[in-house]
Amino acid sequence: MSTELPVVGAIEAGGTKFRVAIGRSHHLLADATIPTTTPAETVAASIEFLHESKHRVEAIGLASFGPLDLNPHSPSYGSITTTPKPGWSDTPLLEMVRGSFDVKVAIDTDVGGAALGERTWGAARGLESFVYLTVGTGIGGGLFAGGRTHHGLGHPEMGHVVVAQEQDDSFEGICPFHGSCIEGMASGPALRARWNHPVVDLLDRWEVWDLEARYLAQALRSITYITAPERIIIGGGVMRQQGLLQLVRTKLGVELAGYGPSELVDSDLEDYLVAPELGQDAGLFGAMVLAQQSLAT
């Protein structure tokens, strides 16, 4: 009997690009990046890549931007629902991929997938509970607890946590649903809208990142008290700013104000709030975990 690990396909569906890969465990055999255009064009290109590879996949995992319908009893299970991404609302992503293959296809959110990747091969190995938060084009979070990523009535929407407007900030936020939620106040597009400059032109402006850290710390305080995770992993394009992670740790310590478990509030938070070990590959590798898990069910 062969003990060789299965070859699986992975699709990380993002708002600006799709990353598609074929791999065994977390070793890539082939991969491609596809610009996110229309659903029909982008999904077709992703399917074509998997079909044309010399490696036959035994299962496929999808880690997608959302919101997603993750209720397996729903007629729209696996669909992108009311996304602000133009043209992508009500896209039956799971159905589109399933219809092109005769293998199992599993789906979760992009941050849920990233959480699985980090738990399997990254900064959450051995943990029973943790949050993966991404700060980039949008802000989203996945909660891992009880041996799986958490889904309830829907999936967590941590990017829409309410934050209080800082006294030195008059910006009203850009979220089309809630205005000044954390995504509306601290995502990459929010940074550009508040300061009227591309983020690349803001790298040396201390006041930009001090305010960013304060808003992120507010949201992280709420996430900490509501979910009580052993660790929070925070990634995404915005978090690549030099020194931002440490600044957020400092601001979060102020926000916690000494309230909480001693091992948290008496620490420097360096083991609590961490960068992803898998970097920008967390979601892609998480999609591979989803595929591998589907073969075990």
In short:
The chain is α/β, with parallel strands linked by helices.
3D structure, described in words:
The chain folds into 2 domains: 7-113 and 280-295, Nucleotidyltransferase, domain 5 (2-Layer Sandwich), CATH 3.30.420.40; 123-276, 2-Layer Sandwich (Nucleotidyltransferase, domain 5). By secondary structure, it is of the alpha/beta class. Helices cover 33% and strands 20% of the residues. The chain is globular and about 55 Å long. The strands form 2 sheets. A 5-stranded mixed sheet has the order 3-2-1-4-5. The protein has a 5-stranded mixed sheet with strand order 8-7-6-9-10, with helices on both faces. Helix 3 crosses helix 9. Strand 6 (129-135) and strand 7 form a beta hairpin. The mean pLDDT is 95.
Kindly list the characteristics that best describe this protein.
33% helix, 297 residues, 2 domains, single chain, alpha/beta, globular, five-stranded mixed sheet, Nucleotidyltransferase, domain 5, 10 strands, 9 helices
Radius of gyration: 19 Å
Number of helices: 9
Global morphology:
globular
**Which secondary-structure class do the elements indicate?**
alpha/beta
Q: SSE order, as H and E?
A: EEEHEHEHEEEHHHEHHEH
CATH homolog superfamily of the largest domain? ATPase, nucleotide binding domain
What portion of the residues fall into strands of 2 or more residues? 15-25%
Write down the CATH topology of the largest domain. Nucleotidyltransferase, domain 5
Strand order of the largest sheet: 3-2-1-4-5
Number of strands: 10
Helical content class? 25-40%
| Corresponding CATH architecture of the largest domain | 2-Layer Sandwich
Count of domains: 2
Poorly predicted tracts of residues: none
